[in-house]
Design brief:
This protein is an alpha/beta fold. The chain has a single domain, classed as 4-Layer Sandwich (Metallo-beta-lactamase, Chain A), CATH 3.60.15.10. It contains seven helices and 13 strands. α6 runs antiparallel to α7. The longest helix has 17 residues. The structure holds zinc ion. The site of zinc ion has 4 residues, from loops.
Length: about 230
């Protein structure tokens, strides 16, 4: 699978439905590079890095997590550099790690067939973020400002949005989706997220499991869906 280029400084490895692998984002600063999400497993992370190497791009120094869900984070033990996450994301991962230690992997594999596909021949390893923040923080990757901040969302209570104003791009993770596994969306949370997205310095939005859309299309989809519920 090949990287797709989104803007001058942004690429992504496209999502894959069969193994529930999300888009993995890549932001190239002049001093260092940043990844958005770690991958579903070490195999997914390695596929991403192989695609970066083939494109002549340096491996990321920092990996930012959009939220704690396994498909975005369980490759974290295989990343290059350090990981950064919102504090709630770190708390969720710690709870899940403890549960796996206590109960084994049976309950995890029972959550979704696609998890079984991803982990057919791989161990499940959960690690915690190296750095956590609350509210928000900014990175200067070298002529490339990156803003990360916690946002209310109908998907989970730990969504981090990643905004790259110079590239007019906003990474949303799964923030616009409903709650796993029913996918129900709370209308008030949808509207608060729409307000947050509309305040961002961005024209392009990249969700976890979809192709890039304009900001207007993204907000329209978010609100239409939740009004229908
Ligand atoms: Zn998710």
């Amino acid at each position: 699978m090949k990287l797709e280029r989104l803007t001058e400084r942004i690429w992504f490895l496209p999502y894959e439905e069969a193994r529930d692998r999300p888009n993995l984002g890549y932001i190239r600063g002049d001093r260092f590079s940043v990844a958005v999400d770690a991958g579903h497993s070490a195999a997914h992370t390695q596929l991403f890095y192989q695609a970066l190497v083939e494109s002549g791009l340096p491996l990321p120094a920092v990996t930012i997590l959009t939220h704690w869900h396994w498909d975005h984070t369980f490759g974290m033990h295989a990343i290059h550099g350090i990981s950064v996450a919102g504090q709630r994301t770190g708390q969720h991962l710690l709870r899940f790690q403890s549960r796996l230690d206590r109960e084994g992997t049976g309950f995890f594999f029972a959550m979704d067939e696609r998890i079984v596909c991803e982990y057919a021949e791989l161990p499940v390893i959960v690690t915690l973020p190296d750095m956590v923040f609350s509210d928000g923080m900014q990175l200067d990757a070298g002529h490339c400002l990156i803003r990360l901040y916690e946002a209310e969302s109908p998907h989970t209570d730990d969504s981090t949005l990643i905004e790259v104003p110079g590239e007019r791009t906003l990474f949303l993770g799964d923030a616009c989706c409903g709650t796993f596994p029913t996918w129900e969306k709370d209308g008030a949370l949808c509207r608060r997220l729409a307000d947050t997205i509309l305040k961002a310095d961005a024209d392009i939005c990249l969700e976890g499991h979809w192709t890039p859309l304009s900001r207007d299309e993204t907000v329209r989809g978010l609100l239409e869906d939740c009004d229908a519920n």
